Fold this protein.
Amino acid sequence: MLKDIVIRTESGFKVKKVSEEKMDREDKKFEKAFSDGVFAVPSTQKPNYRFQDLYNYALKKGVTPEQLGDEEWQMFKSDE
């Protein structure tokens, strides 16, 4: 049996017919590549905060970044 898959192209999208067996093989190959269950796509945006500085500040205070107040977070807001 064939399944429809949608593929993104530069000009839009196209639909391709693929067998269930091939889909299963591709799914297993993908799952094997991310055995810990984590799959992330890197962002192309610059960070909104200087996280290394923020982390070092929190470390010096003996707290985690989550425990810092909004005003402290604002001190590390990126200018870019």
Summary: The beta strands are 2-9, 12-19. The helical segments are 20-33, 51-61, 70-74. The longest strand covers residues 2-9.
